[in-house]
């Protein structure tokens, strides 16, 4: 079976978040199931060196934004179809934002071109290539199913995966013409979203199936609290909606072979984590003689992630004898807050603003617990890394966090099934209460190690989820 995946990012080539990790890992997970998944993505500057190595397989004159071509190349095991349009994608700064932190003004045109190219590829633009399924990811690719229907094509069937419904891709109706969309489709039952074109909303209307990245999030987004204004559209498409958990790359994230760790370890050699903890303390400026649990945060520093509430709870964490290592970037006020916390609680709190993949691995390998107090979380990956490394996740009961962590309640602890700590109230008080639970559990070494071993046994790879996608594709393909 041939599947055309369409996405704006794909690890390790271009990444801003978990979307890239999923798109980068899923093709390899699907291959043993007889599915050839190729990834159509923009040729950003970081991918320019790959263009001469590939084969030009299609050229287009009438894309939004002008002419473009598609180059096929396989890199790091990922089969790529690169949309080469330098006028749209040869940009400094971020994938979506300029040097000032604002969205590129022509983002609708940029990702409209990506979607338009996908639909034409499905129509046979690449000789000898006829995808059986179109799989679009997030708002940047959500017009691909729309273009398919606009062209009057019933095939191939389309799947749209929502990675985060908070990002929807809105633009004014004056963009209908430049995008080549039907003007008579600009109404609430099709493209219109409160007077604007809604990329994600349109894809939800016109795709054949809708998935999101955890079963709980699939239920949550049907409600006003989590649907971000699209809950009505999703309720109308409820029969087409399902949730499939993400997985992680268990080779890249393997504590037994991780070169970022001074002392790689397995479930049978958990004592080696102490050497990694010492390395974390040295790197983060923490007291190496701390006797309480070492918490880490590896995250975007935003309100969605609940880190404003965590910041308020830092004094309580320190007073309980715990330590905190923070790695992330995001809202300036939160960056300042965690830097100031590190200054105020020297030796107890350490903060690194930015992202460092090697340091992220070290924090997972050397910390005792990872804090993820998100107000909403479609799936989350850092808690899966935590499970893999015996770094017990401390998570809010939402989305994929609720689906992947077994709370250390009395019954789960007695059954040796607990893999972390789950709490309900994302507030300073709620976080303080769960910190108390973690500190008390950490004081019982046998119980703590039993939880670590249970966590490390959890299946966090792509095998189960890949089978779910394969079954979904099979149900759609003729």
Q: Give the C-level CATH assignment of the largest domain.
A: Alpha Beta
* Number of structural domains: 2
Question: In one word, what is the shape?
Answer: elongated
What is the CATH homologous superfamily assignment of the largest domain?
Answer: Glycogen Phosphorylase B
Strand arrangement across the biggest beta sheet: 3-4-5-2-1-6-7-11-12
Count of helical regions: 18
> Portion of residues in helices?
25-40%
Profile the largest sheet. 9 strands, mixed
- Report the mean per-residue pLDDT as an integer: 96
* CATH architecture level-2 label of the largest domain: 3-Layer(aba) Sandwich
Distance between the termini: 11 Å
EC number: 2.4.1.21
Keywords: Glycogen biosynthesis, Glycosyltransferase, Transferase
Catalytic activity: [(1->4)-alpha-D-glucosyl](n) + ADP-alpha-D-glucose = [(1->4)-alpha-D-glucosyl](n+1) + ADP + H(+)
Family: Belongs to the glycosyltransferase 1 family. Bacterial/plant glycogen synthase subfamily.
